Amino acid sequence: MSTEFLAPDGQLRCGWAGSVPEFLPYHDDEWGYPVADDKRLFEKICLESFQSGLSWRTILAKRENFRVAFHGFDWSRIAEFGAQDVDRLLQDAGIIRHRGKIEAVINNAKRAAEMVEVEGSLAAFFWRYEPGPDEQVPPQTASVTPQSIALSKELKKRGWKFVGPTTMFAFMQAMGLVNDHATGCICRIKAAEARAGFTSPAVG
């Protein structure tokens, strides 16, 4: 369980946000706020798959390089990648050079295109897995939840790769499907306010 830490501004934050300097702006400005933008959702699910077995600090440091290498995570362009693109990316020292993860992003780009055709948007699909008020777990006490397990299972059924339950819970935390900011963290209230003013794109 994470404990809060006192940030330089004198306010409490989630403990992990104080572990390295670059985490604090990410924590304050991005993590845990609801996202309905398909491009951001796709980017995050790809980056979470790259993080598997690594630290988020490693991925965050390379995020801009990933964006360049994968054309801003435009899945319509990534879906056209072939063997030469895989070989090119395996030579790109700015990203994580892991063949399985690179190929998973290409595969998932194709699956994302299919999902948009069927569901209307990625957001409409992902936000169906937002837990209800009676399904919330205490902040920073879980690494998987019934919802992340269900999301992982459905994505795998649809052919997505590197989308295990733990990876999906990290995705849900970051994209605001759950508010997992620590109880005393000042961003917990901010994230709750953002969610209150957010219209869920989930349908059906």
UniProtKB/TrEMBL annotation:
Superkingdom of origin organism: Bacteria
SUPFAM superfamilies in the record: DNA-glycosylase
Keywords: Metal-binding, Zinc
The name this protein goes by in its record: Putative DNA-3-methyladenine glycosylase 1
GO biological process: base-excision repair
Pfam families, sorted: Adenine_glyco (PF03352)
Keyword Translocase belongs to the record: no
Gene Ontology MF terms: DNA-3-methyladenine glycosylase activity; metal ion binding
Keyword Transferase: no
Binding residues annotated for Zn(2+), in chain numbering: 14, 27, 181, 185
PANTHER family: DNA-3-METHYLADENINE GLYCOSYLASE 1 (PTHR30037), DNA-3-METHYLADENINE GLYCOSYLASE I (PTHR30037:SF4)
Species per Swiss-Prot/TrEMBL record: Phaeobacter porticola
